[in-house]
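Subject: mismatched residue count in predicted assembly?

I count 743 residues in my input, but I want to confirm that the predicted structure covers every chain. Input:
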Amino acid sequence: MTHIVVDPITRIEGHLRIEAEVDGGVLRDAWSSSTMFRGIEIILQGRDPRDAWVFTQRICGVCTTVHALASVLAVENAIGAEPPPNARLLRNLITAAQFVQDHVVHFYQLHALDWVDVVSALSGDPAKTSKLAQSISDWPLSSEKYFSAVRDRLKGFVSGGRLGPFANAYWGHPAYRLPPEANLLAVAHYLEALEWQRKFIRIHALLGGKNPHLQSYLVGGMATPIDPNSENAINIGTIAALHEIIADARTFVNQVYIPDLLAIASFYKEWASIGAGVGNYMSYGEFPDAGGPNPLPYLPSGIILQRDLAHVHPVDPGQISEFVTHSWYEYKEGNERGLHPFAGETHPTYTGPKPPYDRLHTDGKYSWLKAPRYSDKPMEVGPLARMLVAYAKGHPQVKKAVNGALAALGVGPAALFSTLGRTAARGIETQIIVDKMSDWVDALANNMAQGDLRINDNTKWDPSTWPAECMGAGFHEAPRGALGHWVHIKNGAIGNYQCVVPSTWNAGPRDARGNRGPYEAALVGTPVAIADQPLEILRTVHSFDPCLACGVHVVDANKNEIVLVRAV
Amino acid sequence: MTVEIDLLILGLGNVLCGDDGLGVMAVHQLEERYDTPHGVRIVDGGTLGLALLPLLHEARVVLMIDAIRCEDAPGAVVRLEGADVSPAVRERLSPHDIGVADLLDAAELLGCSPTKIMLLGLVPDRMDLGIGLSPGVEAGMPALIDSILGEAAALGHVLRLKPQRGVSDGARLWA
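Triage response: the counts match. Full output below for your records.
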């Protein structure tokens, strides 16, 4: 039995550590740990709830908009503010842009290198690569000359010793399966995706004013005015610019991302039966219709249990609780019972080994993440959960896209419950959302044309309109999955605040009954060819798009070390 | 390369983690007290990673302000330049580990690196959860602001004191 420690899992935010037992080339058990305490809840106590989103926005460098929105929704829910249709449309667009950008960056910049061997790309034949590219897509950058130039550029970079993002990987590992020309194609698109996202990010500036942190959220609506005749508002020119940027994104997703995803997946079909995990999936639903007080989400909410696509259960937020049996916290009434976020407590008590250490005490407490459960069951959240819920509910666009991808790969729906399914669902979701965005832009333009310029419900802005005590919850689907913020307001100030974030659902530890969290469960059974090069572990963990936030970010002037994968 | 910003002053770090946020707090203080001259941009970059690429693309010179760990006492001013910057920021585990070092790599891969990159900051003391600077770092902030002004002046950009101190939401909240 080999004990493997991966700390930190590279190419992700924060401090995630996986400990695993490998025997006979197969992973037998795994423990997922966050080694970094995060406790935004403590910082927020006593503050003005209308400011909370500005703080929660800083929880995470990639998820700024999502924590801002969840916070605003929670406070609106508590005080009874109702954002007007335009505010919902703007929020949908900002959220959708975040999804599209995050998913593309995840695929190319964070996950692709688990499947694509950059060193092999150096020996890719440009003519063959061109032929391959033209066989899978109409994307115009596909000539032999183009791929030859990309190869030269990559060679220059590597021979200059500046491996940069390609430095820390297991090139030549036997689990890499792509032929050199597919690797070269993927590297070319790695570079194109970087360039594309640099341009696409401008959409946030159009919608949110000041870059790079969005300033446009407001409890009750949005702060960015809309006015067809004003230079300093979202106007007719903005509408045209939005349409243009969205059309470009659609082309990139449909002609680059999706064909690459299917082409790469076709070489890794065995990963459609690896990495399933807990088999329970939850989505809060996202992208509310603009009209009405109880808007229906474009992507539906629901729960799927034990991979049963014939039944989708409604989400009852009252069933959510967090366990700390294996987490470095103490609950006042004991650690065997879960607590609902409204009753949530954040009392850190570290009992782990003194760093530096070789092994965590995985029998006891071993993570700074709590273990969220729904009705005492672990839930996977994220693109796969959303696509499964939508698919099972018969969402026409999702059904069509999922069936199309399954047919292209020649696999059945059971293939969705896997590492590959998770990665494919993210691509499908990108396609669904980028196709929907222009409808929201049109709706916004329509409202403007009809003179509806309302962006904010300010009837509840003044704290004197609030009850002395009120509670609210904000449910949002972030790119990484279900995100909830719970706020308790007392005399105009925050009494208690709890966030249950996607990576806590997915990366959390075992609960009081010893049930594994989704990462832990997904890793069991994973083949591991070379114990000290656990590429396969990274594939499954990265398929969840992990994001453990609030890393302490300090520059070290004397050290230069990243690789911390150790076989113990 | 499209150069639209001659000097980008980029504050980095997490304001929720004590002294880690000193770079962000420095740029907010700067914006409150000084007018931003033409050709200069002052940006709170937080812990954003690739989202900063458009800014880097437009900038000729980048002056990053950050917490820098070394043997000096907390609050001491540290300055790194050129080839020393990238290894020093390597350890920053920012968005998806695509931190500042990878942001710089991405710029280089795309052929849009700024012509000059400098890193200026203070040695941090405490970086656990909480808003606000430790006393030693707080005491070093005026020297850091002076150093930023000095670097800008050396590049021909003079930041003048505002007649009245402005109000920045950032400075209000992170103070």
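The CA atoms of residues 162 and 304 of chain A lie 46 Å apart. Marking this ticket as 'not a bug'.
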